[in-house]
Amino acid sequence: MQCIRWLPACALLLFACAPVRPTPPLTDFIVAESPQGFVGFDFATRRQSFSGTPAVGTADWSSLFTGDNSSLLHLDVRTGAVLDTRAIPAGLQPVAVSSDGSKVALAAPQEAGRWPPVGRTSSRIAVADTSGQAPPRVFDLTGNYEPDAFSSDDQTLFVLEYQPASAPDRYYVRRLDLRTGAVLAVGSRSKTAVPEENMRGTRHQHVLSPDHQTLYTLYTNQPDHLHSRDLAAGHTQSNGNVYAFVHVLSLAEGWAFCLDLPQPVGMGSAEADILALSPDGRLLFVVDRSSGAVVVADAEQLYVRSTTNIGGDPLADHAAAVVGLDDTLFIGLANDVVALNPRSLAVQQHIPLPTSPNALGISPDGERLFVASADALYALDAGTGAELGRLPAVGVRAIAYVSP
């Protein structure tokens, strides 16, 4: 009887004395985008490691490249320190970098997001070898061109050609052969010959697939656009029903495909739309904050799987979304983050915030959610929403990379 009477007390004593598992210290490193360029935040040291650097980053975010007058600077992504310097033609700046960082495409400065772009009848594009084993190769092209991305084998530079060159109102995706200097058309996914499509509107956001083989670009606000497949079918006018689509460019095989998005996506402000890819590259999510529309598409078979609406804000002028390891979609709203089930698209969690989110990011293990506001960067427990830490951060509009 005595043992029976004492067992509950012993159990309570053992429970009270059991060690409480401490919260692991934050060691995440964040690369964010601001109007002045990339910014680095190191939670391990609780400081901002570098700021305001207009640059392009490698696919694995191990390096940044920026321009300084007639020099190409190779920067350490953790500190912003200059690792190497290469001579480049004056007046050009980095626009695109190959997946492995071995080549950087340079062009005349353009105002980011400007539409229509500046008119010009000739374009100078240079491709720099970051190892320094060869001087930059310069391509002087007749027409209005801008670098977009390198092919997987680094033998082709995909470029945008703006037409008419002196007063652009549309553009085409082309291939610049880096061996011959020839500008060629981009093929179709079906491998059949189709008319080239011209694009109008806002090229809003790039997302690279995890295997670095495919580039997804969100285009919005262009109801007059005609896809190659429409042109091949003999259509001469758009039906005006598609205001947004994802341009899918195979960097490995050189074909392009346009995945149409259903209305009302793209009918509001372009800044209110965002593209997010699942960590394994299978699912593509598009969120339109102005209408509340959410679209999930198969990123491999290229079709829309399902849609939902979480309630819109017609005055929204930005959007924030990120996908977790289990494909949960996190979306920033006015003063909270909602988590959507990837299969049903039902809201499964609300995380209240002390402020409005400008950008979202997630740790590689899916445990920590990062939220950028107007003046701070928060680290939250992705499961409970509990705040784990914060750093001062002004003007962050996107989180490009999170490293443990």
Describe the structure in your own words.
This protein has a domain at 65-185. Helix content is 5%, strand content 47%. The protein contains two helices and 33 strands. The protein has helices spanning 2-17, 228-232; strands at residues 29-34, 37-42, 47-53, 56-57, 63-68, 71-76, 82-87, 93-97, 103-107, 122-129, 137-142, 144-150, 156-163, 170-177, 183-185, 187-188, 202-208, 214-220, 244-250, 255-261, 273-277, 283-288, 293-298, 303-309, 321-323, 329-332, 336-340, 347-352, 359-362, 368-372, 376-381, 387-392, 398-403. The protein is globular and about 55 Å long.
What are the key terms here?
five-stranded mixed beta sheet, 404 residues, disordered N terminus, globular, four-stranded antiparallel beta sheet, mainly beta
Oligomer: single chain
Largest sheet at a glance? 5 strands, mixed
From the alpha-carbon coordinates, what is the Rg to the nearest angstrom? 24 Å
Low-confidence blocks of residues: 1-16, 228-233, 235-239
> Averaging pLDDT over every residue, what do you get?
87
Q: State the end-to-end CA separation.
A: 54 Å
Reconstruct the topology from this structure.
Layout: H1 2-17, E1 29-34, E2 37-42, E3 47-53, E4 56-57, E5 63-68, E6 71-76, E7 82-87, E8 93-97, E9 103-107, E10 122-129, E11 137-142, E12 144-150, E13 156-163, E14 170-177, E15 183-185, E16 187-188, E17 202-208, E18 214-220, H2 228-232, E19 244-250, E20 255-261, E21 273-277, E22 283-288, E23 293-298, E24 303-309, E25 321-323, E26 329-332, E27 336-340, E28 347-352, E29 359-362, E30 368-372, E31 376-381, E32 387-392, E33 398-403
Parallel strand pairs: 16-20
Antiparallel strand pairs: 1-2, 1-33, 2-3, 4-5, 5-6, 6-7, 8-9, 9-10, 10-11, 12-13, 13-14, 14-15, 17-18, 18-19, 19-20, 21-22, 22-23, 23-24, 25-26, 26-27, 27-28, 29-30, 30-31, 31-32
